[in-house]
Fold this sequence. Notes:
7 helices; 10 strands
Amino acid sequence: MEPSKKTLSMSEPAMTCPYPQVKICGLTRPHEAARCAGLGADAIGLVFFPQSPRNVTPEQAGAVVAALPESVAAVGVFVEAGFSFIMSRVERCGLSMVQLHGRESPRLAARLTAEGVGVIKALFVGGRPGLTAVQVFDADAYLVECARGPLPGGNAMAWDWGAARDFGAHHPLVLAGGLSPDNVGDAIRAGLPAAVDVSSGVEASPGRKDTDKVARLIAAVHGSARHYAARTLQPVFRPKGGALHA
C-alpha cells in the first residue's frame, strides 16, 4: 500500500503523542462535551445526519463547540452531504474538521481542504469505499471500521481491528467500530492506530455520554503507550485553536 500524500510525519508542527488520540463522537449536550474534554478527549464529533439518533441541529452543535477548549477538535460528521451544506455547518458551528462518512468524492474532500477545513475520510473493511480508496483521497486522517449494520458507522459492532494494522503503518489511522472501555486496549494492540473513535461504547443512551465510561476508556487508551515504544505517533486532529497539540 502506498503512503498517502499526507504522511504520518505531517511535517508541521513536529509534536508527538505517546499513545493514540481519542475522539468521542455523537455529542449532543454542551456540558457532556466539556466534561469529555476535561477528561482528556482530543476531539468530539457532532453528527449531521438526520437518520442518526445523535443528529444535531446547527444551534445544538454551536452550543457544544462553544463549550470546548481551544485545544480540542470539533469534528462534524456528514454522510454524502454537499459542499454547501457542509461549509454552512463548518462556518455556523465553528467546526475545525469534517468527517466524510459515506461515498463522497475525492473532489469534495479536496474542495474542503482548499477551504482550510481538516478532513477525515471514512473507509470500510468489507465495504465501499474500501481501504484502496486511500489512493485517490488526500485527507488528514482515515477512519477505518467494518461495513456492517443498518446505519453508516460502527453500529456498536466489534470486528477484527487487526485488519487495519498494515493500513495504519502507512496512513494516519483512526480506528473505530464497537470500541468500549473494556476492549479498546485489545483494539489498540491489534490495530496500532494513531487515534480511536468511540460513540455508543461510552453512552448511557444515544447521544448521552456516560462520563464514567469516558474516563475509563481514556485511561485505557493512555495505558497503551507501551505498544508504541518503537513508533512515533503524530496528532491527527486539528483543534479549534488551529495548531496541532500532542
